[in-house]
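Q: What would this chain look like folded?
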Amino acid sequence: MNRILKLEMRRAFSSFGFWVALIAGNLFAVLHLVTEIIPIHVEFNNSLGGGDIAPQTVWYAWLGWNIGGTHAYNYIYYTIVPILAVLPYAVSGWEDIKSSYRVQLCTRIERKKYFKAKYFAVFVSGGTVCTIPILFDLLLCYLFLPGFPISASYCIGPSYSDPWAELFYTCPLAYVLVFTVILFCFGGVYACMGLAVTELLENRFLIQIFPYIFLLLIGYLMTIVPYDVGIRLIFFSEKINPRFSGGYTWLHFVLNFVIYFVITLFLWMRGGKKHELYH
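A: My prediction, written as structure tokens:
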């Protein structure tokens, strides 16, 4: 298991798609810095002149929270998360089938080991490319802005009714790390959505865009479901965005993640068993 896992992880983190997604995400963070942080927030802080207006801080300007400015970087980034997550390695299951690599490998090792290692590598690579740009953006914000906590009296953070408000105002770094972990988990499981449909879709491009289309469809369907219906727990794609986490607790995120994780793992393992080409 260790050998095949190391092989899959090496393939995932050295793939062309991984570096494309990583560079694209980090360029997005740099663009956020150049067009929003430097000209707007720094200039705003320099012009206060001892006034009573609250200065901008790292925690308010951070990509994971700030929706100010004119470019909507926060909303755009979390919208493309399913696309970034799939780029590194999700389509590798399809490639292994087309190249007969899977058949050759599974004649030498136990089939389950291959499928488990593949799922793990896709999950980790997808989560990694989604979280590194967010952390990189935080470091860039630290270069230009102060990092002291935001006072709740300024009304620029979560409302007191939000489950995460106390954490945000008392230890904003912990708040950032919590939502970074959430992003990692969902980025990983979004990537595995593409892997899970490998046996169902014959087109490489359809596999790559499936998670994005699926989440858009579910998001639309949830808009017509009453708020008090429990089925709404199935979809929280927007809620992994700290800015729009609203009243969702840690239990909501755990339930949502477990649902997607179990379904994608089952489809991947079951699909491979059903369509196995060797005996």
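The mean pLDDT is 82.
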